[in-house]
Write a structure and sequence with these properties.
The structure is a single chain. With about 325 residues, this protein is of the alpha/beta class. The protein is about 30% helix and about 15% strand. It has ten helices and twelve strands. A nine-stranded mixed β-sheet has the order 1-2-3-5-4-6-7-11-12, with helices on both faces. Strands 8-10-9 form a three-stranded antiparallel β-sheet. The longest helix is centred in the middle third of the chain and has 15 residues.
């Protein structure tokens, strides 16, 4: 189980602790009072991301299915709600710029899924998409989230599809980002190889250089501001990935992938409006696969965002929020 740091400063003075602030118990903390929020506003300014000067933003914890989950809550509690599910080896903070913008009109709930971010690692090592979809189902019930728009990227997108298949009447609408029933093996291998090669470092500069090479769409300044959400400082002074490394080292038995399978035919029951967002240079979701995905959705839409790859919402945030904003406006 991960060790929890509840300090409010951005850099810890003790080794073996987290580099970022988050709630260390049942009481939420106001994230707008942290240096991390000031850093986020710098990135928003650099990228000209529209946002309100007065945003509610909290770090929270909840225990469901015998496990502690961390999540970020943005915006007014009575606003229409959006549930955000991040991609593999990422965290709820991967949505921060999007959340900052959308919180002007929506209540945003960004979940750290099991073994990611500031949520607990799975004791049994189960990281199947189906299990994470069941986590999300229990989580929304626990916090009383009613019929939200559900937005998922990559791994989180697959979890969103499985969550919806379990209860097609639950989501008000779907936004699936750069993933679908059909994906490209080459892209999956590229991501897996990057994760495996970026587990432990003597200093954060090494990790920043690797991320910059892997993701040329993001500025070095933006990467530097977000690195604290990806790594923690171990007791021996080395920096290690916050995600459960056992799954990448082969120390966990791989589950039956058939449990996670979803087909184009499964989408016939998805009666809600749905938007598929593809990065123009994606190595995961091909053009034709995205079109088949859209066509299989009863109320499917497809938009391709230029100047980005798989991580659409962080590589071209303005393009992403423009595409998603038009879809959200159509729901109103």
């Amino acid at each position: 189980m991960q060790r929890v740091c509840g300090e409010m400063n951005d850099a810890t003075t003790e080794r073996g602790l987290y580099l970022n602030a988050f709630a260390d118990g049942v009481d939420p903390i106001d994230m707008t009072k942290t240096g991390e929020f000031a850093s986020l506003l710098e990135s928003a300014g650099d990228l000209s991301i529209p946002h309100s000067p007065d945003i509610q933003y909290r770090s929270c914890n909840v225990v469901v299915r015998h496990q502690r989950f961390h999540y970020l809550e943005w915006g007014a509690p009575d606003a229409p709600s959006i549930l955000l599910l991040h991609g593999g080896h990422q965290s709820a903070h991967s949505w921060d710029l999007v959340s900052l913008h959308l919180a002007q009109k929506y209540r945003i709930i960004a979940l750290d899924q099991r073994g990611h971010g500031d949520s607990e690692w799975a004791r049994n090592g189960d990281y199947s998409n189906l299990t994470m979809a069941q986590d999300a189902q229990a989580f929304v019930a626990a916090i009383g989230l009613q019929n939200p728009i559900v937005m998922g990227h990559s791994m989180g997108g697959r979890n969103t599809l499985l969550l919806t298949r379990m209860n097609p009447d639950y989501p008000r609408a779907l936004v699936i980002v750069d993933v679908g029933p059909e994906t490209m093996e080459a892209g999956r291998k590229t991501i897996s190889n990057f994760v495996k090669r970026n587990e432990i470092f003597d200093d954060l500069e090494h990790f920043i250089r690797n991320v910059r090479e892997y993701d040329p769409y993001r500025s070095r300044e933006h990467i530097e501001r977000t690195v604290k959400y990806n790594m923690l400082e171990r007791a021996d002074g080395k920096y290690i990935s916050k995600c459960d490394y056992r799954r990448w080292r082969g120390e966990i038995e791989v589950h039956d992938e058939n449990r996670d399978a979803i087909s184009l035919g499964d989408l016939a029951s998805f009666k809600m409006p749905a938007l598929v967002v593809r990065g123009a240079n994606s190595n995961i979701l091909a053009d034709d696969a995205a079109e088949r995905f859209r066509d299989a959705l009863p109320k499917g839409n497809l938009v391709t965002v230029p100047n980005c790859g798989h991580n659409v919402h962080s590589q071209n945030t303005l393009g992403f929020i423009d595409a998603v904003g038009k879809f959200l406006s159509s729901l109103e």
